[in-house]
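Database export, one record per block. Field names are fixed; values are copied verbatim from the stored entry.
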Amino acid sequence: MNHPGWRRALQRELAWLMTLKVAALALLWWLFFSPPHPSAVDGEAASRRFAVTPSAVSAPASNPSGREDRRG
């Protein structure tokens, strides 16, 4: 195929841009999500992060069957 000069230049530029984008995504993954950077996610860490007190975290006791007990 005989492409004009501008088309070949456009293909080359797009190839470089795609390569740059893939490299940027790989760098971001390595910086934030790679295995050496684990983030602890437990109840205490989450409550510290969101400034939630332990009394607000605990739910009221309920019937495990899900039905209300209407005796009386």
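Remark 1: The chain has a mean pLDDT of 79.
Remark 2: The CA atoms of residues 21 and 27 lie 10 Å apart.
End of record.
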